[in-house]
Specification:
Blueprint (H helix, E strand, L loop, with lengths): L2 E10 L4 E3 H5 L6 H8 L3 E3 L7 H16 L8 E5 L10 H9 L5 E5 L5 H15 L4 E9 L9 H4 L4 E11 L8 E4 L7 E4 L4 E4 L1 H10 L1 H11 L9 E4 L4 H11 L5 E2 L3 H4 L6 H11 L8 E8 L3 E8 L2
Parallel strand pairs: 4-5, 4-6, 11-12, 11-13
Antiparallel strand pairs: 1-7, 2-3, 6-7, 8-14, 9-10, 13-14
């Protein structure tokens, strides 16, 4: 085998929906203020009895079922998350236990909002190197656990959820080479820290970085995979803010691509946002099997990672 591919995807969101009108009753905000600044209208919020690994396991089970696979077919579990409360057992081990995966390598990857694309690249490398046959790659975050619900600048952004992909060996590469990196000296611009841990960010710094620096990096990720932006059928960026997604997609030049805008109904779900939005596009039939799709994550640590994948 010369490469790896995404065999199937799945996603999961908690049942509770928090609207902008609901938030207006909690903090000094309004539907108009939120939609005009970030484009979000609703978000899903997990309850106290819905931990991160439960969200992740639901999405992973859906991906496995879609691929027609059993838990014992998986030998590597990677969970991208930045909202794990406990150090051990990690989320990957907890998900493996929930699903009955017998003896996988189980690792968490914390690159915040770029976590899923980092984890997908790691799975691709492992499969192509022969150390894994089939990997389960999950992005899952419960941002509501690390949110200050009295801070209107951050509480209007966040949502909870999970997305997953099954990655397996293939004769033809279906996952392009990753382009990844970071700006460590600006890592303070997005934070989840303190006791208790709380999400905070320097919104203007992140906005300027994302809209000025990232378009060229996203184009370079396409070039590394052998595609021009206009060849793309889909673009799934980290669902941070509609005012970041739309100009970034426009500057990228993917003129014929379906651009994911799941942020409007899901909010910013951090590491879950890309697989969640990607899985919805597949489920809705808005992209077709074999279509080239750019997945591009960015955010915490001011890290970024992107690759062009073939739609399962």
């Amino acid at each position: 085998m010369n490469g790896s591919r995404i065999a199937a995807v799945g996603h999961y969101q908690p049942a509770r929906v928090l609207t902008n009108e609901d938030l207006a009753g909690m903090v000094d905000t309004s539907d108009e203020w939120i939609t005009s600044r970030v484009g979000i209208r609703t978000r899903h919020i997990a309850g106290p009895d819905e931990p991160v690994d439960e969200l992740a396991a639901h999405a992973a089970a859906k991906a496995l079922a879609s691929a027609g696979l059993a838990p014992e077919d998986i030998d590597l579990v990677l969970v991208a998350t930045s909202t794990a409360i406990d150090r051990s057992p990690n989320m990957a081990a907890r998900v493996a236990a929930r699903l009955g995966i017998p003896s996988p390598a189980a690792m968490d990857i914390n690159v915040v909002c770029a976590g899923f694309t980092h984890a997908l690249a790691t799975a691709d490398h492992a499969v192509r190197a022969g150390s894994s046959t089939r990997a389960l790659v999950i992005g899952a975050d419960k941002m509501s656990d690390v949110t200050d619900w009295t801070d209107r600048t951050t509480c209007v952004l966040v949502g909870d959820g999970a997305g997953a992909a099954v990655v397996e060996a293939s004769a033809e590469p279906g996952i392009g080479p990753v382009l990844w990196g970071s700006v460590p000296e600006m890592g303070h611009a997005v934070r989840i820290e303190g006791q208790p841990a709380r999400f905070a960010q320097e919104g203007q710094s992140v906005y300027r970085w994302a809209t000025t620096r990232l378009p060229a990096i996203a184009r370079a990720a396409c070039e590394r995979a052998g595609y021009a932006p206009q060849d793309l059928a889909g673009v799934v960026l980290h669902q941070a803010n509609l005012r970041i997604i739309e100009p970034l997609a426009q500057k990228l030049g993917a003129v014929d691509a379906v651009v994911a805008r799941d942020v409007t109904e899901s909010g910013n779900t951090s590491a879950a946002s890309i697989p969640l939005a990607f899985s919805k596009l597949v489920e809705q039939g808005r992209i077709s099997s074999g279509d080239p799709v750019l997945l591009f994550g960015f955010g915490g640590n001011l890290s970024y990672a992107g690759q062009v994948v073939r739609c399962p």
